[in-house]
Amino acid sequence: MSAYVEVTDLRRRFDVSKPWLNRVIEREPRKFLTAVDRVDFAIEKGETFAIVGESGSGKSTVARMVVGLLPPSAGEVTITGVSMTDPRQAAARRRLRARIQMIFQDPYASMNPRWRVGKIIAEPIRAFALIQGEGAIRARVSELLGLVGLHADDARKYPHEFSGGQRQRVAIARALASQAEFLVGDEPTSALDVSVQAQILNLMRDLQDRLGLTYLFISHNLAVVRHMATRVGVMYLGRLVEVTTAKDLFAAPRHPYTRMLLDAVPDLAHVGRARVPVSGEIPNPIDPPPGCTFHPRCPLANDRCRAEVPALLDGVACHAVQEGRA
Amino acid sequence: MTEKILSVRDLTVAFDTRRGPLTAIDRVSFDIHRGEILGVVGESGAGKSVTGSAVIGLIDRPGRIAGGEIHLRGERIDNLSPEAMRRVRGRRIGMIFQDPLTSLDPLFRVGDQLVETLRTHTDLSAKAARTRAIDLLAEVGIPAPERRIDGYPHEFSGGMRQRVVIALALAAEPELIIADEPTTALDVSVQAQIITLLKRLCREHGTAVMLVTHDMGVIAEAADRVAVMYAGRVAEIGPVASVITKPHHPYAAGLMGAIPTLSQEADRLSQIPGAMPRLTAIPQGCAFNPRCPKVFARCRVERPEPIPVEASRVACHLYDAAERAV
Questions:
Q1: Which residue from A23, A37, B92, B174 has the fewest beta carbons nearer than 10 Å?
Q2: Do A265 and B217 touch (CB under 8 A)?
Q3: Spans of all domains in chain A
Q4: Chain A residues with CB-CB distance to B260 below 8 A
């Protein structure tokens, strides 16, 4: 029995070369940025898989490849056994598309400001021809608005008439409109205030319980991830460095980067605490360090780490952990 | 008792609009002592940044200080002429903003900007100023400062740029630093470095800091005392440990409960219904009354004044002796 979503050896390279003429004149070779490198994970039906990482770690690129907004350079994503890349499965993929939806960070940027909310939410229903007849569509829109805690009359309003949190509710209603069962949230609450963030996170969990949704949750906020996720993947410079259950990750982080990250997060429980200073910053992904990309910041790095890329074994990609030095 | 550096009394800031004045800050009072970090938190629209701008005299028209007094070491500064205020700014009050790139001129070397600041505010010679600039860069933790001083802002990473901005703010040895979301644009690992740096420098120089942020985690770690703002008013002000672990004001309590933390797992986050009121529609009486779970009749008519509760001051009728007696 395979998992609901399976990601195998996923890679994405972006061409960041200068224009052709500049390259000729300045005698520079083409330059590539490896945003995602050999990423493998699986998501079971009904669970929340979260990917955390700092900016530039490639977490959003993974999300976009999973939903098919961005073609991978190599590797494969299969959802319910249907490949998101194989051209021979195009018909099956088209049917699958309705069941996969994405929620973005800025709900205002993802809505047409000239459309009323009712039309915005009805768009997927019309696009996939799920319900026939205007009356039936209107009834479904009202039902969806109720589901996300808005009023049926809100369908007549425009996006600018809502606050940030309400707009994110509209975005969730639209995502659910096509009877989606798999939602990919790319930092869905990062633009919201904490009290509103709590409302949206609670709503997402309630909807998951009621509708049996599966989530891929992308965030840089470890506390939010701890609250939402059943399993977590930690990314650093395009690679997954640790994948484990949320419980284990927060109770006993294994990879040195995960430990550093958890230690660095300012938290309410740390009133006035003196912290262990974190060293260094994320290197430039165009020219990443050889071997394990974390080695210049890692307290456990040795010669092997500087030369050899650690594979993800038993949920952690670290030579030190595998050799028992950590 | 240590020396009082900044004293703000009944500060009121209004924005004149065609439909009459909007009160963005409504009778806000607080003090900051020597070597102390006062955290100012609130959700967007609470007026925390406007408070900071008012203290440094950077409120732009149509905004104006409509009432109250600001004293810097006993000297009134809210009614100074623009020219006199310009001399206070930079010399006696340093500033750190969210985006370091807006504080740095991209066309000038970092060293030139530091030297310019030093020579404007002190009577150092050009040579002495450069030596001092190198010392400052070393102090904020920039490696190889004698080489980096001749770099341009774009050659620095985000965290390093924010360090340069901190060096600029410290250049003239100000008595007070206003830091407006200094770590919001940074990744967590870098954020931790900047908080540690700010805390150390504040302690070593005896500088008072007003730390404006929406991130309670940052406040928990960095601040000595914290003021929670809501709709332009201070809801609660007190020692950081007591405000975070045992908040008195219902809004502060709701806010703390809404924040997911790393240390404990909550099945549901407590949520405050609704959203912060707009400036055009601040409710009568206590501004929080429509969202407050403990609202009673008096809250809807009479605005609560801050009253001492344990080590804090809380603007809530619940803590009024008369109400408690009932």
A1: A23
A2: yes
A3: 5-241
A4: 198, 201, 221, 223-224, 226-227
**C-alpha to C-alpha distances, B29 to A253, B47, B132, B234, B247, nearest whole angstrom:** 44, 13, 37, 8, 19
Q: What is the pTM of this model?
A: 0.84
B176 contact partners, CB below 8 Å, separation of at least 6: B5, B6, B32, B55, B72, B92, B93, B94, B207, B208, B209, B210
Q: Alpha-carbon distance B16 to B24, whole Å? A: 10
Of A222, A270, A277, the CB nearest to B196: A277
Alpha-carbon span B1 to A252, nearest angstrom: 44
Query: By the CB < 8 Å criterion, does A223 face chain B?
Result: yes
Put simply, whether A211 touches B (Cβ < 8 Å) is no
For residue B43, the chain A residue with the least C-alpha distance is: A193
Asked if A275's CB is within 8 angstroms of B187's CB, the reply is no
In this structure, the strands spanning A82-83 and A74-79 are: antiparallel
* Chain A: closest CA distance from residue B111 (Å): 22
| B262/A265 Cβ within 8 A | yes
DSSP string covering B289-303, please? GGG-TT--HHHHHSP
Contact criterion met (CB < 8 Å) for A281 and B260: no
Q: How far is B147 from chain A (nearest CA, A)?
A: 18
Return the pLDDT at B308. 92
Q: Is the ipTM of this complex over 0.85?
A: no
* Positions of chain B with pLDDT lower than 50, given as ranges: none
For chain B, domain boundaries:
4-92+172-325, 102-171
Q: Which of B157, B183, B188, B272 to mutate to test the interface with A (most CBs of A within 10 A)?
A: B188
Phi/psi at A213 (5° precision): -75, 155
Q: What's the pLDDT score for residue B230?
A: 94
pLDDT digit string (tens) for A104-145?
888 788 899 999 999 999 999 999 888 899 999 999 999 999
Query: Chain A contacts of B265, Cβ < 8 Å?
Result: 226-227
Q: With an 8 Å Cβ cutoff, are B262 and A165 in contact?
A: no
Helix (H, G, I), strand (E, B) or coil at A279: coil
Strand partners, B177: B94, B209
Enumerate the residues of chain A whose CB falls inside 8 A of the CB of residue B276: 193
φ, ψ of residue B76 to 5 degrees: the values are -75, 130
Contact A194 B43 (CB under 8 A): yes
The phi, psi pair for B157, rounded to 5°, reads -80, 170
Number of Cβ within 10 Å of residue A33's Cβ equals 18
Q: Is A30 helix (H, G, I), strand (E, B) or coil?
A: coil
| Torsion A32-A36-A40-A43 (CA) sign | negative
Which CATH fold would you assign to the domain B4-92+172-325?
Rossmann fold (3.40.50)
Nearest-angstrom CA–CA distance, A213 and B323: 48
- Measured CA to CA in angstroms, residue A105 lies from A108, A109, A184 at distances of 9, 9, 11
Q: How many CB pairs under 8 A join A and B?
A: 139
Q: How far apart are the first and last CA of chain B?
A: 37
Opening angle at CA A104, ends A98 and A109, nearest 5: 110
Superfamily in which the A5-241 domain is placed by CATH: P-loop containing nucleotide triphosphate hydrolases (3.40.50.300)
Closest CA of chain A from B233, distance in Å: 18
Cβ contact, residue pair B258, A271, below 8 Å: no
